[in-house]
Amino acid sequence: MALLTPKDLININKQLQEADSTVQRVTGLDIKGICKALYGTSPSSEKVGIVPVTSGNGIIGNFSASLHAITQYFGFESFVTDMPDVSGYYEAVRDGAEIILMADDYTFLAHNLKNGKMANNQPCTGIIYAEIASRYLKAYSKDVFVVGLGKVGFPGAAHLVQKGFRVYGYDPDENLIQRAVSNLGVIPFNPEKPKKFSIIFEATPCANTIPESVLSENCVLSTPGIPCAISEELQTKYDVQLVAEPLGIGTVSMLYSVL
Ligand code: 2YC
Ligand code: MG
């Protein structure tokens, strides 16, 4: 999993506000509205405990503080524990946390201690970015281009197929393409025969993964991927509606999925 850096999380509130207004413009719903539509749940002031974790590459500067800002932005009461790891978990439960948020280098989880529901950041991020893409008001067809069919991309592609979209998929790893073709009926995208799309969902840890030949004027690109899938130049040239934010959209998807 690509690890976030403190640089990615600079001014997370501003990044979230900008992403929220783009989502509103693209889909007619704000991010909360997308979560309600996706999970059919709504918060009733659950208290969230955020536990820093020192394992592996250790604490990422601003990660816990960003989760605090994100949960506040979406109206949850939340606190970051003073201690990390097990001592932090103990502190969170002792001080009344109903939902625990914590992440090591491999898993970022949300656990609702009241109803036992648990969420993993990877599928929750894929599904909400796919849902946002699928609700593009100006889409001219039900064809969607999905780039990245791994732990984040595959659940997103599955969500789009389930919603009746015709998914053309690409991944540098041939095995992941075969998995999506055989398990989801995804159409393998053939770079030799490019086609233009109005809806694109990308989930890779690589930059510039979207070829210009698939971009249509004013298309939507919904992507949690860091670094960004297209250059500023291409974004401007095709007036691409870009929904991209490093942590908040995936986190609120996790929270609504455990309510
Ligand atoms: O500060 C801490 O508590 C660290 N243990 C946090 C590690 C998070 C590692 N995961 C990531 O950087 C992200 C995920 C949040 C989503 C994609 N990569
Ligand atoms: Mg990317």
UniProtKB/TrEMBL annotation:
Pfam families from the UniProt entry: PylD_N
Matches recorded under Gene3D superfamilies: 3.40.50.12150, NAD(P)-binding Rossmann-like Domain
Domain Pyrrolysine biosynthesis protein PylD N-terminal: 10-118
Signal peptide positions (record): none
Protein name: 3-methylornithyl-N6-L-lysine dehydrogenase PylD
Source organism per UniProt: Methanosarcina spelaei
